[in-house]
Amino acid sequence: MMDDDPQALMESYLEAIDAGGPSELQSDECLSELLVNESENEFNSTGNSNSTPNSAPPPAKRLILSRECSAAMSLRKRSYGYHLTHKLLFYIVLARQRFANVDRAFVADGQRTLCEQILHESDLIARFDFPDLFRDLFMEQVLLCALADAPLLEFTNPAWLGAIVSWQNGEGCFKYYGEEGDGVIGPNALTTHCSTHMSGVGAALLGLFARLQLVQQRE
């Protein structure tokens, strides 16, 4: 994807978008490994009968990650599309768990590296005027990179936010317009007018940007 010709870039992107990892299943399993570790932290701390409100907190839990997840989430392996955003989500959750044996600087650098890669994809999608096929992915890219520990300013672009807001339909939802049954009244109003994943990402994204604006106004 090094060609400067937009059409050639898009063709290369379409060929590469399914490349890399993690898969959706791997992403779920690896996130579970992080959350199980955190759950054990909470269980161990609350299960200590000798603890008091003023006692020192228990030592941080060490992360035990399977070889499969270590390989799937490796920064040395290039990913594209949803594989790339799912990898970023893993690093965002990892940063918030504060495991004793995880270097926070490494995790922060990993987030930045992934968002720099994602930015190339987001820019390409924007240059093609946000094709319907890529809108859900674009929203996920912007949301996760805006949530990263040190977000790139490009992901708070007002023009990008304005474009995303314009994709809402009359019901306030986001929907893939290629989906069968769009606009056809059915027994489930949610699926009739909304794509659950796209609308969930959209709601989270709009809430995040509202929060960022409030923070900026207070500064």
TrEMBL record:
Segments for region (Disordered): 41-60
Bias-annotated ranges (Low complexity): 41-54
Name of the protein in question: AGAP008238-PA
Species classification: Eukaryota, Metazoa, Ecdysozoa, Arthropoda, Hexapoda
